[in-house]
Design a protein that fits this description.
With 368 residues, the chain is of the alpha+beta class. The chain folds into two domains: 216 residues, Hypothetical protein, domain 2 (Endonuclease III, domain 1, Orthogonal Bundle); 123 residues, Alpha-Beta Complex (Nucleoside Triphosphate Pyrophosphohydrolase). It is 40% helix and 15% strand. The chain has 15 helices and seven strands.
């Protein structure tokens, strides 16, 4: 049984007026964004993948660079994963890039290079969930599928007083049903973008611009002066902080980098070997131990290079980084799936996690 939608006057007379007002507002107020000038399903797909959990202003330069490097599904499918991750470097959530590349290869092999319009076929592709499926198929092919992202949930929660927490996945169906009820089925491409734009520009998390909202005469939270009460959220736990130690190992004028396995967190990215500092262990000891365990090398620590702080979605790290000299051993990998000895100039050819990118400027002053 589907979850019930909170009672609100969304009758046959109200819905058309709401849709009309929203679409008129969108026509007059939409931002000039590069992916809104294309009808290419692949380009739209790239934009929507990048926009997941990432701000528009951050995405724009990445979108342009990515499509300049990989202008078609075929160019992405045929590309080396390292190249794709390098163009994606800094955007985060790297599984998005890995899955997009896998999906491009699947479309090339199974659908003659044409993005499938069929909902089931498209949803079966790697990395395609409810949001990507609805966004791409509605915008590129005008399929009547309602998009539900954080912006849309916020609009709906205030509009019809949905008191279920927006950050609980169990409640997704409630918001999906509400979005589907409101959807303008003859213009789903415009309506979905309008809903997301409304959440981004007007129905903001803080200080919403209710007076200029096209839904103000329909919005129950606004009419009852309860806007700040919605959307409801479950209080999240404080994210943990981990102490990490890593070593930049020099062998003459070359440094050692290792590649993380392609699946999982930061999969496919290159980094300086290291790991978590254990209880009652000094960072220098961790550095030596991790390098011995991961790559089977004996090293000598020369100096402390820097301490890097970085926040990921679910945890933070404090990483002590040491300049090390190779002493002995032959590389045997235990954890990483590849390694390279490179000079400093070659670091620009490899995709690194942000925490490691923060280390690179300090290496310019290291003389070995």
């Amino acid at each position: 049984m589907k979850n019930s939608i909170p009672t609100f006057d969304l009758d046959k007379n109200t819905l058309p007026r709401m849709r009309q007002k929203l679409l008129k507002w969108y026509d007059q107020n939409q931002r000039d964004l590069p992916w809104r000038t294309t009808t290419d399903p692949y380009h739209i797909w790239v934009s929507e993948v990048m926009l997941q959990q990432t701000q528009v202003d951050t995405v724009i330069p990445y979108y342009k660079r990515f499509l300049k490097r990989f202008p078609s599904l075929k160019t992405l499918a045929d590309a080396d994963l390292n190249d794709a991750l390098k163009v994606w470097e800094g955007l985060g959530y790297y599984a998005r890039a890995r899955n997009l590349k896998k999906a491009a290869a699947a479309v090339l092999n199974d659908y003659q290079g044409q993005v499938p319009e069929n909902e089931d076929s498209f949803r079966d592709l790697p990395g395609v969930g409810d949001y990507i499926c609805a966004a791409v198929l509605s915008i590129a092919f005008y399929k009547p599928l309602a998009v539900v992202d954080g912006n849309v949930k916020r609009v709906l929660a205030r509009l019809i007083l949905i008191d279920k927490p927006v950050n609980n996945s169990k409640n997704h169906s409630t918001f999906s049903e509400a979005a589907d009820l409101l959807l303008a089925r003859r213009k789903p491409h415009l309506f979905n973008q309008a809903m997301m734009e409304l959440g981004a520009l007007i129905c903001r998390p803080r200080n919403p611009d209710c007076k200029n909202c096209p839904f103000k005469q329909f919005c129950k939270a606004y009419l009852e002066n309860r806007v700040e009460e919605f959307p409801k959220r479950i209080k999240t736990k404080k994210v943990p902080t981990y102490h990490i130690s890593a070593g930049v190992v020099f062998k003459k004028d070359k440094i050692l980098i290792t590649r993380r396995k392609p699946e999982g967190f930061l999969g496919g990215l290159w980094e300086f070997p290291g790991g978590k500092v254990q209880k009652r262990e000094k960072p220098e000891e961790t550095c030596k131990r991790e390098i011995r365990e991961e790559v089977n090398l004996g090293i000598e620590i020369i100096e402390h290079l820097t301490t890097v702080k970085h926040a990921y979605t679910h945890f933070k790290i404090i990483m002590d980084v040491f300049v090390c000299d190779y002493v002995k051993g032959r590389i045997k990998l235990n954890g990483p799936d590849d390694f390279r000895w490179i000079n400093l100039k070659q670091t620009k050819n490899y995709p690194f996690p942000k925490a490691n990118l923060k280390v690179l400027p300090f290496l310019k002053n290291v003389i070995r």
